[in-house]
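Regression report. Comparing outputs from two consecutive submissions.

Submission 1:
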Amino acid sequence: MKRHKSVFAVLVVILLAVSPVVEAAKGNWKKGRIYYRMVCTDCHVNQAGGKISPAEKTKAEWAEYFEKNIHGPQDAPAKYAASYFVSKEYRESIKDTNRAAAKMLKIPDEQLLEDVKAFLNHTAKDSDQPSRCE
């Protein structure tokens, strides 16, 4: 009986240790929200014709957007891949005029991309909490 309790205790400890790692791999939607609102929205308002609400697309549409990795016209150069706009190169290029980009310079590209994806998934049209930003 004691052995079963010990095995159970070890399993609980392992699950508790792995849970934050799995959650981190999915992305931090709160960090993604900050980046999206302060970098993506800022650019769209000032250069690309207006805000884009996360609720304009469903979860599947956002997933397809990132799978295609195209930001803009289909024939846009590689520099306009969706992933480029979370890259360290892009953040470096706007850090003097965008505080969020400057603060997030040390975040690896892949992690920041997962954070933005998590935010868009969290606030998509068909999510439990669709974004209401105008």
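Submission 2:
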Amino acid sequence: MSEYAHKNILIAGLGTSGTAAARLLAGRGGALFAWDSKESTALPQEDLEELGHLGVSCLFADEGLAALPASIDLAVTSPGLSSDAPVLARAKAAGAEIIGELELAYRCSRCPFIGITGTNGKTTVTSLIGDMFRLAGLPHAVAGNIGRAASDAVLHETGEETMIVEVSSFQLETIVQFRPRISVMLNIAPDHMDRHGTLEEYARVKFRMFENQKENDACVYNADDVLCARIPDTGLAARAFPFSTSPLAGGGAFVRGSRMALTDGASLSIDLGSVRDLKLPGSHNVSNALAAAAAAYIAGVPVRAIRESLRTFSGLPHRIEHVADIDGVSYIDDSKGTNPAASVRAIQAVSRPIVLIAGGYEKQADFGEYTDAFPGRVRHVLLMGATAERIAESAQKSGFSKEYIHRCADMEQCVREAAKLARPGDAVLLSPACASWGQYANFEERGRHFASLVLSLDKSHD
């Protein structure tokens, strides 16, 4: 009998993860209630119809909150809901255990997990590990914060796969049993301060990735990152496996000269190829490549597939992605730059003088590191969204002249003005250093809008 049988179960939030959690739990014997803060008319009707057919009672907004059962055994929360959300307070008062969708997926799965987290590079490394598994012909699923809910991957698993999951800090807040066989910690930089409050608290939540690991598990971590370098001293039970862009004395993945290598610190030494052969742009992607290679190797992926992937993997949409060349100007979509540290890497990866489009949702980030990268690289910056004024103030403190700072109402004006300001040999770079919420549903929609506007510029020259 299912452990969920005869229980009242609440799905809090009917976005991608909540809907997937409801599908995963349907048919396991529990009474399912799904609640969302939006009215039913604001949600995909085909999803609601499907959940209805699966026996899920869907409730909405304040009226639905009041209609929840008096007793709730389990609440599965979407990562976008903060721990003090009224629906979770209601569930806790009703006696519920509160877990996240990732935790649910882990509990329901028969497969080993590789979990990838960090402030920046998660999606690239998750996808790169998946590519290595693909080239090796090994069964796997790529899921998590990357776009496909882990619950959806588990719903369709055969039991033979390795689950390769991108994990956010929001998801790590609500784990209980989640234990990846291999954890990957890429870096820690200030992000989501509106939710976590301090860098120390943010790091504490990130470090939950390996809190349930045991001695036969592995933790791949960035020895070049100040906070990540402390991981072996945090009571880590798993085997610590560092990566670095400099040579390492013991075992790990590293760069020596122009070659990437992997060693156990004793007899094993594997050449992974030349840094120059990487298709991924930017020095930060050398670290990403090393992290992915280490995790894949520990997971049993053959070295030939790791080498081939490093040589051929060309990156992801909206991450320093070339859109078009128009009148000698290169247009680059880095909409995935949703925090200052990520956007600094994009600025450093672009070799041309930059006309930068920036700004967006207010996450209480410190933009000092971001704007310190402007002098000598950025010629003009066009700002939009809630953070425009704070970025402008930070830029001036960084020594960037205010005459090169332009405020725009929206993306349309940004692209139009950028095209006027850019000179042949320049790059127009969208790397906002901010989330897209408030203007767009997500960074993908923002990147697509930018690209469509750029391509419209190209057509106007026909």
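Expected: both submissions complete independently.
Actual: both completed, but the second showed a warning that disappeared on reload.
Relevant detail on submission 2: The chain is about 35% helix and 20% strand.
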